[in-house]
Each structure stands twice: as structure tokens, then as C-alpha cells.
Amino acid sequence: MRVDLWNQEKVRSLGYNCQFEAGSLLETLNPVDSYLSENTSQSPIFKQIRMAGLSLLAIAAFYQVAMINAREITFPPPSGYTSQHIIPQGYREPDVTSPKFAGLATYANLPYVHCLAPEGYDVEPFDIAILGAPFDTGVTGRPGARFGPQGIRSGSWRIHPEAAWSVYTGKFKHSTRIGLTQLTCDAQIVSSRPTKSSKGTTPRMITLGGDHTTTLSALRSASSHWGPVSVIHFDSHLDTWDPEVLGMFSSGHMQALVLISRQVEESLTMRIGVNHGTFLHIAHEEGLIRNSSVHAGIRAPMVRPKGDLRNDVRCGFEIIKAREIDRYGVAGVIERLKARVSDTKVYISVDIDVLDPAFAPATGTAEVGGWSTRELLSVLDGLDGLDVVGADVVEVAPIYDNAGESTVLAAAEIVLSLIGLMVNTPVSE
User: Alpha-carbon distance 22 to 16, whole Å?
Assistant: First the structure.
């Protein structure tokens, strides 16, 4: 690599100018030098001062000449690790006005497909859909998970090879009734699209939450195409509470009487208290999930310990507590999860609060004593080989994140692991 900041004429000109300036400096100092020689020739102190001044002057002149000559140095080619960071020939700075720096944001800057287009429109086929669910009116704690899809997408920008930046500005404010009805409809539309290259004919979907209530819509869609599924539920809470116990309040502590349609074509039925702590109970009642489901990372207090546990078993779940990872290790947790779901179709739901707040503070119902990001990613990677037909990452509330954005970065990496599970194991109907 040749350091050539100036052309030859400029170097010569600069060199001559520097030599001239150095010569002028010497001429300027000559009268002072003569004065010191004539008046202080017998003083040792002044002799030392005189010699020091001349030495500094010589060093300055040498430095100027060296800097001129340094521009002509030819360095050996870089090798080893350094060679990986050479700017390629023809490289240009990215255009910040290009679509990858503005406009509609997608996960990891993947191509945007109008998957909700009406029938008759030419829609490009796809195998895995990443669907945002900006919804949090089903929470019982602090809201903010509606910004989860935006945060997860923001955290995923670094996954793209070009590490582009873009802006996602959509804000959707829905009631629980409207939100869940719309999400169910959207999930059905996405799942009905043809696949591009996968083994099956039904595309699989990963939902970016949004609060955990959004999983109910995804489970309805998955069940309609794949039949009842086994749920692997990563969370600090059970989320199988009976609506009569934890169903009378939604975000804002207002009584939640919501209308939900199990299928868009069916008539609406009345439900009380659908929220992010009761959706799995309702999913069980609707026959969406199997009795081979499992929680992992549970550690939050219960409303009625004995009653909650009995109800959880009735809903078809087994519990792996957060601290059991210390006893069994990551490999032991993976073994228990696989044994529980066996060879059934699997839906993986990840509530970001399964992680300890030290790793993921940006959530509405944080619970201390959770797993580390590394532990969760290791468990997810160990689930390779399961027939994963759908997944989600929910309860990400970026407004509560730290300066390092550790929550959205973790969420983005979790989504990447879920995509890997789907890609590695195609699923057929």
C-alpha cells in the first residue's frame, strides 16, 4: 500500500518551502547566537542554554524534512487479520438517500413483500414471513411493547452484510378487540400464501411483538394450517391464568370485555379478560395447543400458587423453572424440551422477560433471576431438528432499553436463531 497524499510537484514544492522556512529560521536566530557567543562565552550556564537551543532547532528541522520524505514511503502489503479490513478497490461511501437508509424498515433489511395484498395481486412467494405485531393493549403492567417490532427490526440492522440504517415510523393504536381480530386476519392471509422453495406448501411465520396477547392470533393461524401444536413457551410467567383470576384488567386498568373471533369467517364470541397473562388458557380452551406443551424460564410469583399450578397442568403444560438451568445445565434443559414435545408440530414463543433484566431491561414485566442471553441462544440452537411451524418474540418495549440497546439486540439475535431452526428443518403438512 502506497501512502501518496500529494503529487510529486506538490511534494517538491512543499519540500522547498520547508527548507526555505527552516533556513529563514536559522538566519533569524543567527544574531541571537552571535550575541550569546560574544557576551556569555565564559559562562557554563549560558553555554548549556545555547547548546540546548541549537539542539531543539536541529530536531525541528529534521522533523520537517522527515515528514516530507515520509510521504514517499512504500509500506509492505498487509497480511493476516489486518488484510481482512482492506477497503476494496472501487469502494464508494453508501448513498444515504438510498432505500436502505430510509423508508420502510424490515428485519435484517430483508426484501419487503406485500403479503397482505388482496386476492388477484401478484405476490412474490416466500417460505418464512416476519410479521410485526405492534400491539400491547392486553398488558396488565406497563405498556410499551407496541414498539417491540420497531425495536427488534432496529436491533437486526447489523445482521445485514451492509449494516444499513433505516427508519420505521408506523404507530398503530388498536383496542384489544380490533387488534386481535386484525392480527388473526393478517396471520391467516400470510399463511395462505404459496411457498417459494420449502418442503411444505404453507409458509411459516415469525411474529415480532407486541405484547404476548398477539401469540393467540398466531396460534389460531398455525392451528388452522397445521393442527394443534405443542408450545415451547420461554417466559418468566405462566400466562395460563384463568381469565377470572387475571382477566379483569387490561392496559390502563380498565375492564376488558373483548370480542374475539376464533376464525374470521365465524361469528364473534364473547370473552372476558383476554390479555398477555391469559392467552394460553384461552388457546387451550379453543383447542389450539396440545397437552405436550412446556414452559421454560419460569420464576415469577403466582396469584394462587396451588390453583395456578393445577390450571397450568390442565392447560397441558410442564414447567422448567429458571433456576433449573443451574442444576441440569443447557444440555439438560434442551433434552427435557425435546422429550416433552417429541415429534409433534412445535410453536416457539419467546417472551423477552425470560432473560434477566441485566440482559434485557426493556420489557413491561421484568423479573430478576432470569437466564442470560447466551444461555437462551444456546437452548434455542439445541432445538435443531424440531418441526417448528411458527414462532414469535414478544414483550420488547424499547422505550425502557439502556444506552447499549441490549434488549433489542438480544431480540434480533433470538429471531435469527428461530429462522435458523426453520431453515434447517423443513416441515411438510
Answer: 10
Please report the DSSP string for 192-214 in residue order: TSPPSSSSSSS-EEEEEESSTTH
Same domain, 203 and 336: yes
Question: Do residues 18 and 164 share a domain?
Answer: no
> Which H or E element spans position 68?
helix 44-70
Count of the separate structural domains present in the chain: 2
C-alpha cell at 66: 522527515
Q: How far apart are CA 400 and CA 407, in angstroms?
A: 9
Residues 213, 362: Cα–Cα separation, whole Å: 18
Instruction: Look up cell 435484517; give the residue.
Output: 108
How many other β-carbons are positioned within 10 Å of the β-carbon of residue 79? Answer: 7
Contact call for residues 389 and 346 (beta carbons, < 8 A): yes
DSSP letters spanning 244-276: HHH-S--TTS---EEEE-SSTTSPPEEEE--ST
Is the per-residue pLDDT at 349 higher than 80?
yes
How far CA 122 is from CA of 109, 116, 127, in Å, comes to: 22, 11, 16
pLDDT tens digit sequence for 196-220: 876 778 899 999 988 999 999 999 9
Residue 124 domain boundaries: 99-424
Q: For residues 388 and 220, give the distance between their C-alpha atoms in angstroms, rounded to a whole number.
A: 15
Residues pairing with 229 in the sheet = 289
3-state secondary structure of 231: strand
Contact 93, 169 (CB under 8 A): no
Query: Is a pLDDT exceeding 70 seen at residue 10?
Result: no
Report which of residues 152 and 272 the model is more confident about: 152
Burial class (CB in 10 A: 0-12, 13-18, 19+), 172: middle
Select the more confidently predicted residue: 229 or 193: 229
Chain-wide mean pLDDT for the chain? 76
